[in-house]
Amino acid sequence: MFEWLVGKKREQKSSGSLTHISGQEVLEMIQSGIKLTILDVREQHEFRAGHIKGAQLIPLMQLSKRVHELRTDHLIITVCRSGNRSAQAARLLRGHGFDVRNMHGGMLRWPGKVAK
Questions:
Q1: Backbone dihedral angles phi then psi of residue 40, each to the nearest 5 degrees
Q2: What is the DSSP annotation of 54-109?
Q3: What is the CATH number of the domain that holds 74?
Q4: Which range marks the domain in which residue 96 is found?
């Protein structure tokens, strides 16, 4: 069910490459009660237009100065509109030692409800 926990996805992480996760996998993790932080790195006006319920907003341009606001004991899922900015954020966070996955396709591929 959560392929990223074992096997090929874990091997990708250890090799230094960025690990992606699907919106469906993130939704299943949320529904299962897994402790994670959804980090939305879009701008505030984009976030207000619709976001994943419970997501923490830190725009990408502010992230390097606000890394200290993130929990180190949670898996972090980075999210943006299409997955490009969140991939940059995931690389930055990986460099700071965080356990992080980039949500492939961003909010454009999010299968769950959107909060406003």
A1: -90, 120
A2: TPEE--HHHHHHHGGGS-SSSEEEEE-SSSHHHHHHHHHHHHTT--EEEETTGGGG
A3: 3.40.250.10
A4: 20-109
21-66 pLDDT, tens digit each: 999 999 999 999 999 999 999 999 999 999 999 999 999 999 999 9
Strands 56-57 and 75-79: unpaired
Q: Is residue 5 part of a domain?
A: no
3-state secondary structure of 46: helix
Q: Are 86 and 42 in contact (CB under 8 A)?
A: no
pLDDT digits (tens, 9 = 90+) for 92-114: 999 999 999 999 999 999 999 99
Nearest Cα to Cα of residue 75 among 32, 15, 113, 114: 32
Whether 71 is in a domain gets the answer yes
Q: Using an 8 Å Cβ cutoff, are 59 and 42 in contact?
A: yes
Whole-structure pTM value: 0.86
